[in-house]
Amino acid sequence: MGRVKRMERVVALTKILVDHPQHLFSFSYFCKKFEVAKSTLSEDVLAVKNGLELFGLGRVETLAGAAGGVRFVPGRRVENDNEFLEELAVKLSSPDRILPGGILYITDILCNPQIVFKLGEIFLNRLQHLAPDYVMTVETRGISLALLVARAFNVPLVMARHDNYITEGPTVNINYVSGSSKTIRTMALPKRVLQPGKKVLIVDDVMKGGGTARGMMELVSEVGATVVGKAFLIATAEPEAKLIGDYTAFLRLHDVNEEARKITIEPIKG
Amino acid sequence: MGRVKRMERVVALTKILVDHPQHLFSFSYFCKKFEVAKSTLSEDVLAVKNGLELFGLGRVETLAGAAGGVRFVPGRRVENDNEFLEELAVKLSSPDRILPGGILYITDILCNPQIVFKLGEIFLNRLQHLAPDYVMTVETRGISLALLVARAFNVPLVMARHDNYITEGPTVNINYVSGSSKTIRTMALPKRVLQPGKKVLIVDDVMKGGGTARGMMELVSEVGATVVGKAFLIATAEPEAKLIGDYTAFLRLHDVNEEARKITIEPIKG
């Protein structure tokens, strides 16, 4: 490779850092890649840091010492997050989302990569202090959201299933009562995915009664791990009494009125 | 905002572009955001383009004219993709992945955000010419992979289910024969997610007999859309005769030998 200009290095450095949120790169990794001395790299890192922070696009952290290095931490501005949630609430209020039985249709939102990508960073912004080792969800609809939350935290996703599958190996199973429908369901967690003592953040798309989340909490404690947080894109206002306490939600769904064709949903601002 | 240095603008521009693969931003969007003239922005865009291309981190395309603008197209070097697939094959060859019945455990790979993120770009690299309007998969295990492929193409994900769910609205249903187990299963696609005439790329984690993929193809044609490609992370060598033709796979699984505790899997290089 011929002589590389500083601007080109900084562009490449930005791309690599932001593509690997929370991943700690050693300085020597980049010094070798860009064939520069550490002092030059430090200047480049500072340029990335300044550019990102100036426009509210995240932070760059440097850690000194032998185990040190540089990492990108996604961090949107709180006002941008609030604005995004407001727009999402407007989108979700569209009457054509009302399904029979007063169900709110949200699958398209969860299948939109750009939206769940942003939501992943919004979840991180509000829950960074929890520092989970894993993000956990249960199939199916919340998987895409939970995956992007896991990406923002740079931790693996753990997926509970509603049944035993030959593809998952031995599982721990529990029965739980679905809070809204009062039916008994099974939830299975592959034994190999979660180790005792690890910290787990539970993520799901919608929380109504909290029965499903309660089931996930039981699975986590069954394997000797710890739930450090429960986070949901949407929590319903009714029932007021939930089967779980102390949760985080980003949108509050007050009402889906089939007759009046009206959805009442509002952002819960940070 | 005070006077912004060029380097800081270029960092922010890089971050915004790479966070929105394939999304066409108008020049005026960035001119307004950075408070610069178009000539200055053009120089900034060129710097991003040069930096990314020099290090094989993707392309920046500019389109002239009123409907023009700038977009980032993920594009890894083919040798990097091949190297990544080789490493993945080594990882998947570990004997502790053998589950009873000669099943290969891969869920952890599909739940690793960094791995599926890279796989999304690798799928794009090889299948860019298909230009799908949608990526489609069927629950459950392939969802995370399909979502990141959809992100790389900047199109929505469409998710078929194995049952009817009240949360999905009216569905089109088909019965299909699972190629490997010879059992009859149901697959349901919400009517509202796919419009006639649209181009669909089918994505799944593993293809054995091809029955599931065939089921998805039928669903797509049932709503009047067109399948433009079928892509799988892993295709098994056996059975040799598949229920579908003309597919793309990135790894070939030859054998899972329970007795000898040996897995034979190889990358299919681009």
Keywords:
8 helices, Arc Repressor Mutant, subunit A, alpha/beta, two-stranded antiparallel sheet, homodimer, Rossmann fold, 6-stranded mixed beta sheet, 12 strands, 29% strand, 36% helix, 270 residues, globular
Fraction of residues in β-strands of chain A: 25-35%
What is the overall number of helices of chain A? 8
Poorly predicted sequence stretches spanning 5 or more consecutive residues of chain A: none
Question: Any idea how many domains of chain A?
Answer: 2
CATH-defined fold name of the largest domain in chain A: Rossmann fold
Form type of chain A: globular
What is the ordering of alpha helices and beta strands of chain A? HHHEEHEEHHEHEEEEHEEE
Structural Rg of chain A:
21 Å
Largest interface: A-B, 62 and 63 residues
Structural class of chain A: alpha/beta
Question: In what order do the strands lie side by side in the largest sheet of chain A?
Answer: 6-5-9-10-11-12
How many individual β-strands of chain A? 12
Query: What is the average per-residue confidence, as pLDDT of chain A, rounded to a whole number?
Result: 95
Just name the CATH architecture of the largest domain in chain A.
3-Layer(aba) Sandwich
Distance between the termini of chain A: 47 Å
Helical content of chain A (DSSP H or I, runs of 4+): 25-40%
What does the model show?
The structure is a homodimer of 270-residue chains. In chain A, 36% of the residues lie in helices and 29% in strands. With 270 residues, chain A is of the alpha/beta class. In chain A, the strands form 4 sheets. Chain A has a 6-stranded mixed beta sheet, sandwiched between helices. In chain A, α1 (6-19) packs across α3 (38-54) and α6 crosses α7 (143-153). The longest helix of chain A has 17 residues, at 38-54.
